[in-house]
Every structure is written in structure tokens, then in C-alpha cells.
Amino acid sequence: GPAMRTEISTAAAFVTRLLRAAGGIGEEQLRCFRECLQEALREHYKHHWFPSVPSKGSGYRCIRINHQMDPLIGKAAEMIGLSHERLFQLLPSELTLWVDPFEVSYRIGEDGSICVLYESPQPGGKAAKPLESRSSCKEEWSIGRASPSKNYSMMTVSG
């Protein structure tokens, strides 16, 4: 729905900006890449978007490059003829992008600081607790690959 449009376009524009900065890709290709990525994200997040509980599903929505190309970025890149090898040359080798309701943030490098790309207050005046959702995503990844029993592993971590 329109609910996640801003977050998704912010995330897609950010990855596109990284590619543009790396150089060597035409504007037309970049535009196509951004649209493909937005489409892929929308599809991927469709049933995993909970504005009332923004941190829910955070690990699932996490976009990650870590010696492995995120499949959604990889898919969009294929549409414009970029191989995974080429992508690895163009994008940071360690990138985590969190796309959550009301907040999009990223980290480059395993120990990099987290930078917020987009933040908006939650409707209903509830104060957002972005740090909480952020650390849960981080913890989940530091355990290793997110296990299928996501909620279980998260509870054990924070408990």
C-alpha cells in the first residue's frame, strides 16, 4: 500500500545513489534499476509490514550485502545487465539497510555507525523506539544467518 512507499523509495534511491557514485552506469540504467528494486521490495514486504509494531519483521526486511549479494538487489541489477561480480565492485562489501515503518537506516561496514536515511513520527503520537528495533536486527545478524525460528532466536537474545 501507499504506507510503505516512502520507506521503499528511500531505500531504493539510496542503493541507486551508491551505484551512481561508483560510476560507469548510465542514468537510464540507474532509473530502471531503482524502479525494479522498488518493485522487488514492495513484493517482498507485502505481508511483512506492521506499522503498529515497526520492529516486527525487521530481520526479514533487512537488505544485506556481506560477501553475498542481497537477492533483491541482485535481481534488480540483472534487469539492467549487471552481474553479481560487477555489483560487488560497485557497492560496499558490507552493507546493511533496514527498511522499517517510519524509519530507513543503514550501516556500511560491520562496525560502522548506523545512519538514518528517513525518519518520521509514528501516527498516534507514539514515540518511535528506533534503537530497539535496530539492535534486534543487528543482534539477529550477529548470531549468524537468521534462523527460520526468528522470533525464538530474538527472544533468547534479548532475554
UniProtKB/TrEMBL annotation:
InterPro entries, per database record: Anti_prolifrtn, BTG, BTG-like_sf
Any Pfam family the entry gives: BTG
Top-level taxon of the source organism: Eukaryota
Entry coiled-coil feature ranges: none
Single Gene Ontology BP annotation: negative regulation of cell population proliferation
Gene Ontology CC: one annotated term: nucleus
Domain Anti-proliferative protein positions: 91-110
Family: Belongs to the BTG family.
The name this protein goes by in its record: BTG1 protein
